[in-house]
User: Fold 3-oxoacyl-[acyl-carrier-protein] reductase from Neglectibacter timonensis.
Amino acid sequence: MKLEGRLALVTGASQGLGKSIALKLAENGADIAVIYVGDEAPALEVCREIEAMGRRAKAYFCDVRDEKAVEETVKAVSRDLGKADILVNNAGVTRDGLMLTMKDEDYDLVLDINLKGAFHMIRACYRDFMRKRYGKIINISSIAGLVGNIGQVNYAASKAGLIGLSKSVAKELGSRGVCCNCIAPGFIETAMTKDIKEDNPLLQQVPMKKMGKPEDVANVALFLASPESDYITGETIRVDGGLAI
Assistant:
């Protein structure tokens, strides 16, 4: 299996894209630290599914906005499962609204979770990756970070920031054998997009005329986590049906 003997930390792993990515990595041999906030039950269910594959899994509650909580969580993962080989920063939220009426707290919340949370997680794993001279960091951005979106100045800024963060980390850690890349999904069938129907005009802008599946993103995450991508770093791969061409 491609990831046999590897350990992956996946944030936002109890549902949606994070869950699909965690399960895909586990299917291919990785043990998984399921990082979540909110209800514990879905995270434990993901762990059970992973364990049924014969892999190790453990759930960890962690608010990625909290620097100390992130540091303690990464230490706990190291004690329980070992040092991470793969980090997937998937945790994210939206608080949409036109810029004119957007509240500061909604702007700050989105930036703190989507961007600063990834910064906290990478920094907490940084030294371990350097010492191992190996690591795969995968940041889940968005096409909104590439082209912007009306009513999402906060979300687009956070996802564009992830791309810049990833390029900088790729340059810092490249000589240590660590790769850092982004995935930029378009319209993917998750809880965030549940209100988008097939006849929505937005989908008419997608050359493939349909939404993607979480598995489409998970397959790219698997590639970026695997040895097949060892000479790819600082890249952003779109999974958007051609929307941002």
Q: What stands out?
A: DSSP finds seven helices and seven strands in the chain.
